[in-house]
Amino acid sequence: MSKHFLPNGNIVGLFGTNSQSKRGSPLDNTPSGGLSFLRMLSPLAVKERALQLGFDLAGVVSLAVSKDLEFARQWVERGWHGEMRYLENPKRFDPRLVLPSVQSAICVGLVYQDRIQDSGSRIQGGEGRSQESGVSSQNERRGQFSNSQFPVSALAGNGPQTTDNGQAPPPRAWISRYAWGRDYHEIMREKLEQLRTALEEMAPGVETRVFVDTGPVVERALARFSGLGWMGKNTCIINQEKGSWFFLGVILTNLVLEPDLPAADRCGSCTACLEACPTGALVEPYVMNASRCISYLTIELKGPIPPEFRAPMGANIFGCDICQDVCPWNSRRLSAISSQQAASPSDEPSGMGHFKKASVTKVPDFYPLTVALNSSASHDDGQRTTDHGPRTEQTAQFSLLNAPLEALASFTEDDFRRIFARSPVRRVKYRGWLRNLCVAMGNSGDGRFIGWLKRCAEHPDPMLREHAAWALDRLCFQLGIRII
Hints:
Blueprint: H1 43-52, E1 57-62, H2 67-77, E2 104-111, E3 135-137, E4 174-175, H3 184-202, E5 208-211, H4 219-225, E6 230-231, E7 237-238, E8 246-253, H5 272-276, E9 282-284, E10 287-288, H6 294-300, H7 307-313, E11 316-318, H8 322-325, H9 328-331, E12 332-333, E13 355-357, E14 369-372, E15 385-386, E16 389-390, E17 397-399, H10 405-408, H11 413-419, H12 429-444, H13 450-456, H14 462-479
Parallel strand pairs: 4-11
Antiparallel strand pairs: 1-2, 2-8, 3-14, 5-8, 6-7, 9-10, 12-13, 14-17, 15-16
C-alpha cells in the first residue's frame, strides 16, 4: 500500500543499491517504438505543468528494467515483505508488463508535513471547523515539539513519564503523519488525473497509466532515477530541499522524454535512522526487513504482533515516523551533517546556527483532523458508554496529532468507521485498531487502562484476548501490582 510501503509514504525498503546512472540511460534496454513529441513537448513543460497543478516535485525517467527493480525481486524472494503478498506481483519488476509501450515515467511528489516547530513542548490539540462527519481540519498551529533530540513519535513509549510539576501527563498515542488528514490516495489521484489530462492535450494519442501507491509499480525506484531525491539509508526518498515527508505518484507513458539526472546520495556517514529504529527493521543501510517495521506490524500484519516487537513499539498505534523524525534532512541542525556528506562545498552548512527544516504542505486536507465524538448509547443510569466502557467528557474532542490514548480507546466500531471513512487509518480495520491500542496501553505504564484491558481480555476474538492479557501483565510489572 502506501508510499511508505503503506504509505507514507516511504517506509518499506526495497533497494539495496544506491548507484547512480549516466544521463539518458538510468535504466537498461529501453524498448523502441515510443511516441516522440520532443519537438512539441519538452520534459520541462511537463514538469512545469505538474508544479502548476500543485505538486511540489516533478521529474522524468526513461523506462525499462533496472538494477533497483531486480533487487526488489530479490528482496521479496528473501521474504522481507512479510504478509504483503501484493508485492510478489511480477509486474512490479518490469513496467512493460503494465504498459507494453512504456518509454518514460513522470514522477511527482506532494509534501504532507504539517507546520511543526522546534520548541520542546508536547503537541496539544487545537480548534477546527465542524463537519457532519465529526471530523474537522485544523488551520492554525496545533502545538509544537522538539525534534532535535528525541522524535515526538517515540516520546510516549515504555512506562510512565512526568512533567516539570511531577505529575504524569495523559498518555498519548502516535499516528503516522501521513494519516493525520484525508486519505492521500484520493488527493494524489485527483492531481495525477489532472496532469494526465494536460498530457493528452499536449500530446494527443498518448498512452498513460496512473499510479498512487496502489498498483504494480515500484514508485521509489522510479522517483530516485527521475531526480526527485536519493534513496536514504532508511529507504525513504529524500530531497535536499524538501526533506522526505512527501507522497509519490507516477504516470507511465509511451512518450519519449529526455530523462533527469538521479540525485546524488547525501546520507554520507550518518546512521541516525539505523540507530533509532526500535525494532531493528533497518538491517543495513538502504535495506529494510519490513516484517520487523512498526508500520508493517501496526497496519499490514493482520494477525498477532510477535511479542518481541510489542514493547519496542511504544505508543505507535498506526505507522511509525521515527526513522524520518531523526533524519537531519528533515529537521535538525545541519552542522550534524558532516562535510563527508556534502556533495559539494556549496552543499556544506555555512555555520553552526544554520538549521534545515523540511518543507510544509500547502494542502489543508493533510492537516491533522480534530475528532468530535458523538454521544454513545447510555445505560439505565444515564452513563455514556463505548464498546469497552464509559466515555468521559475529556474524550469528547481532540486532535489526531499526538492524540490522547484514552480518547482513541473510547471509539466504538461505528465511531471508527465514521471518523476514518476518508482516512488511511481505515485500512487497519477496527480489530487491528483494538489490537494496536492494547500494545500501546501495555507500554503506557498507566493504571487507568486496566479496566479497559480487562474488558478486552473477555473479547470474543482470541487475538484480542491474548494482546489484552499481554498488556495487563506488562502493566502489572511496570506498576508493581497484582491484578485479580
